[in-house]
Design brief:
about 240 residues, 4-stranded parallel β-sheet, 6 strands, about 15% strand
């Protein structure tokens, strides 16, 4: 039932999702901005308020990793590309903090609002090889807790800040790291993940929906500063 503004650095790619939502009978529109450009984010907020009248929720979905920032053999930690490390920290860290500055100030003026960040299982349990992304997502979890206290104490207890930490989902980004492109069978890494996931499967994107709706709705009105795993039990399993 929400009116959704999809913010993306490419309006063409953004419009594909906007059309899909609208064609399904819902209401969405596109906002062109980079999460690494505060000026563009400010303009996007202005446009969103013009279109909707107000903004109630910010979901920070931007993030990602780079192969050059991952210590996968034969690459070692000592060989990681400096620019790739910086890019991963910028996209995940700065790409969350800048929108929180822009939209958070708007929420502070209104004394109400919800911010939902995207952490990761990698931010809770560092994953082998995935050093930069894990560190960046751990920073998101810490920042989420900090910002929740700051907003509640300095501005309004009606401003809530939480995060979701997805486990292992089959997406375009990682599908062929976890399954063989030709056979569809699990790779060695995919088998390791499934063997440590008590629910014995990867997540589907739809598995995030319930948690997201809960965290952005009044159903969680006394919940702030949390990082909620949606991981099929991965973070609860010791491996024994």
């Amino acid at each position: 039932g929400a009116i959704v503004g999809i913010l993306h650095y490419s309006m063409d790619r953004c419009q594909e999702l906007v059309n899909e939502i609208n064609d399904a009978g819902h209401v969405a529109f596109g906002l062109e901005a980079s999460v690494l450009d505060k000026g563009q984010l400010e303009k996007a907020l202005e446009s969103a308020v013009e279109k909707m009248g107000q903004v109630d929720v910010l979901i920070n979905g931007a993030g990602g990793n780079r192969k050059e920032a991952t210590a996968s053999p034969p690459t070692t930690f000592f060989d990681l590309d400096e620019e790739a490390i910086r890019a991963v920290f910028d996209l995940n860290g700065l790409g969350t903090m800048l929108p929180c500055q822009v939209f958070g100030e708007y929420f502070a003026e209104r004394k109400t609002g919800v911010i939902l960040n995207m952490s990761s299982m990698a931010g809770i349990t560092p994953l082998t090889n995935v050093v930069t992304y894990s560190a960046a997502k751990a920073a998101i979890s810490n920042f989420t807790q900090w910002l929740s206290t700051y907003m509640a104490q300095r501005h309004s207890p009606e401003i809530r800040v939480n995060a979701v930490a997805p486990g292992f989902f089959l997406t375009k980004q990682n599908r062929f790291l976890l399954t063989d492109e030709k056979t569809g069978e699990l790779t060695d890494r995919g088998n390791t993940i499934i063997s440590h996931t008590p629910m014995d499967r990867f997540g589907d994107p739809e598995d995030l929906v319930g948690t997201v709706i809960w965290l952005i709705s009044d159903a969680s009105r006394f919940v702030t500063g949390t990082v909620i795993p949606v991981d099929g039990g991965f973070s609860a399993f010791s491996g024994v």
